[in-house]
């Protein structure tokens, strides 16, 4: 939604709710209830009713006595804050106070500028100067400011009479005593709210779980991201607030192959073990990857505690295809994989073996290696491609990879 509408709704959605217990998104459930016919009370008919429910902690809107609705969206009962009238009064008071302070500041600025006025500063002279176009010569240049604007810096007529007055808060000498069984009755922790649940509802701060009401979900924003060095746009969403697409999506994680640990054997000191890793291709074209061991004296290779042996051959990753995993009739590509290196291959993901030999007797096992891969900039070029160009230029990039394989077994 537009920013003005979001500000009016206090940056919250009117139809979506968060669970007050576990903070997950609530879903609308439908059920059938029997109701009496208005014409014949002796007969009943089935009618649909909707309520809110959480799929994680099993909280429902019926737990706090919220009535079911006949429609699936909107119109849910919300608790009334007993201090709403007092808070609205304070907001109006401080808004009026801020307006008065702004008027006083502008009047002081205007008083310092009267030395530049050749005539007596009155409503008549201001009208004459502004009418014949002399105002721009007599005042100092200031964008968006006219003499008539400066002269009108006063509160509206009758606003002084409508000044909002608030009653100061009164300190109470007598405090309501605690119940006699407050220190002796057993506490049921399932019925008491946590500190996080109370702070998420600062206007009520419920003590019991039966006082938890659903909260309107916060709106999510789409923001642009620039490179810190060259200020190039890395991520830029569409201007339309209802669109989830991005005009520019140049974040590195969308182009660099992803390395993950799939299985780790029992690691022991000075014993070679085989670790299974997965490489995932995030782009739609083929990516060639080569794993290299770190050289001696490499400044990045300071946390390594084990020797690693990576596959000597170049690895080919299939392009990403969102519809491939749902197409059961698709024929797999033949990459002629070596079974000693490639454990499995599925769509744009491939499993590979690396051999690790811990070099320390205790502590965490950490391995480091280099990943070299090709990169094709598929973005639209600024200038049209000439006939002599051979197409998209391929760039080889090298990334430093550091994996923590867990503790060493005795």
From TrEMBL:
Cell wall biogenesis/degradation among keywords: no
Taxonomically, the superkingdom here is Eukaryota
**GO CC terms on record?**
cell cortex; centrosome; dynactin complex; sarcomere; stress fiber
Record keywords: Ubl conjugation included? yes
Q: Where in the cell is it found?
A: Cytoplasm, Cell cortex; Cytoplasm, Cytoskeleton, Microtubule organizing center, Centrosome; Cytoplasm, Cytoskeleton, Stress fiber; Cytoplasm, Myofibril, Sarcomere
Subunit field text: Subunit of dynactin, a multiprotein complex part of a tripartite complex with dynein and a adapter, such as BICDL1, BICD2 or HOOK3. The dynactin complex is built around ACTR1A/ACTB filament and consists of an actin-related filament composed of a shoulder domain, a pointed end and a barbed end. Its length is defined by its flexible shoulder domain. The soulder is composed of 2 DCTN1 subunits, 4 DCTN2 and 2 DCTN3. The 4 DCNT2 (via N-terminus) bind the ACTR1A filament and act as molecular rulers to determine the length. The pointed end is important for binding dynein-dynactin cargo adapters.
Q: What is this protein called?
A: Dynactin subunit 4
User: Species name for this entry?
Assistant: Odocoileus virginianus (White-tailed deer)
């Amino acid at each position: 939604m537009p920013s003005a509408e979001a500000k009016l709704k206090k940056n919250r959605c009117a139809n979506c709710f968060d669970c007050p217990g576990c903070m997950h998104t609530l879903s609308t459930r439908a059920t059938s209830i029997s109701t009496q016919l208005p014409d014949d009370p002796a007969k009943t008919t089935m009618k649909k009713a909707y309520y809110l429910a959480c799929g994680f902690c099993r909280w429902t809107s019926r737990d706090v006595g919220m009535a079911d609705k006949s429609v699936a969206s909107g119109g849910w009962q919300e608790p009334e804050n007993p201090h709403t009238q007092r808070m609205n009064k304070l907001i109006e008071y401080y808004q009026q106070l801020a307006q008065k302070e702004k008027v006083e500041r502008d009047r002081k600025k205007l008083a310092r500028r009267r030395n530049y006025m050749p005539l007596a500063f009155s409503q008549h002279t201001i009208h004459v100067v502004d009418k014949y176009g002399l105002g721009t010569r007599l005042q100092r240049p200031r964008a968006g400011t006219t003499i008539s604007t400066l002269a009108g810096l006063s509160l509206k007529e009758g606003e002084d009479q409508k000044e909002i007055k608030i009653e100061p808060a009164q300190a109470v000498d007598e405090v309501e005593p605690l119940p006699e069984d407050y220190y002796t009755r057993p506490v049921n922790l399932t019925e008491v709210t946590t500190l996080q649940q109370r702070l998420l509802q600062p206007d009520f701060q419920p003590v019991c779980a039966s006082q938890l009401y659903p909260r309107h979900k916060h709106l999510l924003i789409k923001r642009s991201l620039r490179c810190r060095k060259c200020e190039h746009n890395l991520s830029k969403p569409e201007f339309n607030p209802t669109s989830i697409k991005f005009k520019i999506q140049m974040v590195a994680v969308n182009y660099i192959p992803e390395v993950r640990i799939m299985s780790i054997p029992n690691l022991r000191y000075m014993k070679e073990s085989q670790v299974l890793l997965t490489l995932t291709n995030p782009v739609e074209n083929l990516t060639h990857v080569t794993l290299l061991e770190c050289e001696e004296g490499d400044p990045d290779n300071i946390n390594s505690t084990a020797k690693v042996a990576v596959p000597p051959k170049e690895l080919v990753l299939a392009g990403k295809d969102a519809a491939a995993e749902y197409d059961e009739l698709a024929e797999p590509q033949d990459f002629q994989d070596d079974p000693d290196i490639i454990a499995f291959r599925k769509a744009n993901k491939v499993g590979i073996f690396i051999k690790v030999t811990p070099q320390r007797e205790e502590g965490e096992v950490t391995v480091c290696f280099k990943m070299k891969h090709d990169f094709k900039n598929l973005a639209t070029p600024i200038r049209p491609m000439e006939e002599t160009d051979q197409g998209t230029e391929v760039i080889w990039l090298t990334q430093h990879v550091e994996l923590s394989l867990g503790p060493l077994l005795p």
